[in-house]
Write a structure and sequence with these properties.
The complex is a heterodimer of chains A (136) and B (143). Chain A is built from four helices and seven strands; from the N terminus they run αβββββαβααβ. Chain A has 136 residues and is α+β, with helices and mostly antiparallel strands. By secondary structure, chain B is α+β, with helices and mostly antiparallel strands. Classes of the chains: A alpha+beta (136), B alpha+beta (143).
Chain lengths: 136, 143
């Protein structure tokens, strides 16, 4: 009944094995962006309507995030802060700047702290600090 | 108006055939993106593949409840399937018991395509539903 999915997962087994490294990618169907720096069991914790953090099940430390509604959010940032445009290069913008904008604009102290943690992570893990593909 | 049970083939997508249709509890089709599944499993193949095979499929086919109308993001009338798989997997793909106080969620957009999933804490007021279910979803569509 779920053969298509299982068959597809079976076919992926033939891929070359890749060691874990911090990663980030854009998910078109969800218009969301996933960012993960540690390969451990984790759970999700919603911060607000934009960001869900990923926390290590054992230690509760933040190890990544999912950002939702990227295209609309970036369009709104550009409308309110036109100077943000100079941080966009070839349709891409650093996660560091994105988290900074969120940290500075939220009124919720707990959310600001989470955004600060994510900003630091994005700065530290440059490999994972891939960019948001932004339509301008 | 009830939506069709079967979906047409779509380039770049596969079909999951036995998800619960929130309208009547019978099976209906959902899409999954080949690229998304490949991306999600690339760096965490041992755990993520098993989570998809077990937790995602369990939650779609045996959902305890389904919410409709996702207020986060731009997903409009999409769905959130809520399941309680009894196990999950370590980074090495070893099966371990599910953590108490967690539900497994699978998100589906308004094009009936799954686009996200994962464990989340239950709501403090109702352990059958995810945290802040009142604020996040427009309505409960199933049962």
């Amino acid at each position: 009944m779920i053969d298509q999915l299982n068959d597809y997962l079976d076919s992926l087994q033939e891929r070359e094995k890749t060691e874990f490294k911090p990663y980030a990618y854009y998910n078109e169907d969800g218009d969301c962006f996933e960012f993960l720096v540690k390969d451990v069991p984790f759970y999700r914790e919603r911060v607000d309507s934009l960001v869900t953090v990923l926390r290590c099940t054992e230690t509760k430390e933040i190890i990544g995030s999912i950002i939702k509604g990227i295209q609309a959010k970036v369009a709104k940032i550009l409308e309110e802060h036109p100077g943000f445009a100079i941080e966009i290069h070839d349709g891409k913008v650093s996660l560091y700047h994105f988290f900074s904008m969120q940290q500075f604009s939220t009124k919720d102290k707990e959310a600001a702290q989470v955004y600060k943690t994510l900003r630091t992570m994005a700065e530290k893990h440059e490999d994972a600090n891939l960019n948001l593909h932004v339509s301008l | 108006m009830a939506l069709p049970k079967k979906l047409a083939k779509r380039n770049g997508y596969g079909i999951i055939e036995n998800a619960i249709d929130p309208a009547d509890g019978l099976p209906w089709d959902l899409y999954f993106s080949l690229k998304f599944i490949a991306d999600r499993t690339k760096y965490r193949p041992a755990s993520e593949e098993k989570i998809i095979r077990c937790c995602v499929t369990h939650s779609l086919a045996k959902a305890e409840s389904i919410f409709q109308g996702l207020r986060d993001g731009q997903y409009g009338d999409g769905f959130c399937y809520v399941g309680f798989p009894t196990s999950t997997f370590t980074q090495n793909g070893i099966e371990i018991p599910a953590v108490d106080g967690m539900v497994f969620l699978v998100f589906v957009n308004d094009a009936r395509t799954i686009f996200d999933w994962g464990w989340e804490p239950v709501d403090k007021s109702n352990p059958n539903f995810p945290n802040d279910f009142v604020g996040r979803f427009t309505k409960k569509a199933f049962p």
